[in-house]
Design goal:
Order of helices and strands: EEEEEEEEH
CATH architecture of the domain at 40-127: Beta Barrel
Number of strands: 8
GO molecular function: serine-type endopeptidase activity
CATH superfamily of the domain at 40-127: Trypsin-like serine proteases
Number of helices: 1
GO biological process, one term: proteolysis
InterPro entries: Peptidase_S1, Peptidase_S1_PA, Peptidase_S1_PA_chymotrypsin, Peptidase_S1A, Trypsin_dom, TRYPSIN_HIS
CATH topology of the domain at 40-127: Thrombin, subunit H
Family: Belongs to the peptidase S1 family.
Largest sheet: 6 strands, antiparallel, barrel
Structural class: mainly beta
Keywords: Disulfide bond, Hydrolase, Protease, Serine protease
Shape: globular
């Protein structure tokens, strides 16, 4: 695995923080137009509800995400309605999440989870569940990879 090394410096070049992070998994991606992927959500953590993971709306109270978004973490809410994190998106509280019983955090095998939301999502032009039809399977998978914040 390739590791990228990031340094944060002040204006004089003094090293303030040095942090290594795994290389991004999406290669050759591009920014999505706002409201193009109406099924994406931002999963929020902590008191300040900061973005930490993404998910896909499956139904009125259900979001699909990765198990690593729940494992040893405590998500608070989801936001949806825009892929711009700075917009005032619709907020919904997570009641509970379930990750695959054979999830392996070391290998990421079975890295899948489901979140159950408190309130029913009101679908509109900018908020819709993902379409999971057999004939669109390849396109949906490709679009899901490209639909990132």
């Amino acid at each position: 695995m390739t590791i990228l090394l990031f340094k944060i410096t002040d204006v004089l070049g003094k090293n303030l923080i040095e942090k290594s992070v795994p290389e991004a998994r999406i290669v050759g991606g591009s920014y999505a137009q706002n409201h193009k992927y109406q099924f994406i959500v931002s999963i929020r953590y902590g008191f300040k509800e900061q973005h930490g993971c993404g998910g896909t709306i499956l139904g009125p109270n259900v979001v699909l995400t990765a198990a690593h978004c729940l494992y040893l973490r405590d998500p608070i809410s989801v936001r949806y309605g825009s892929n711009n994190l700075l917009e005032n998106n619709v907020r919904n509280v997570i009641i509970y999440g379930i990750y695959h019983h054979d999830y392996n955090p070391k290998t990421f095998r079975n890295d899948i989870a489901v979140l159950h939301l408190r309130d029913t999502i009101k679908f509109c032009e900018s908020v819709k569940p993902v379409v999971l039809e057999a004939q669109e399977e390849e396109a949906t998978a490709r679009e899901t990879l490209e639909a990132r914040f």
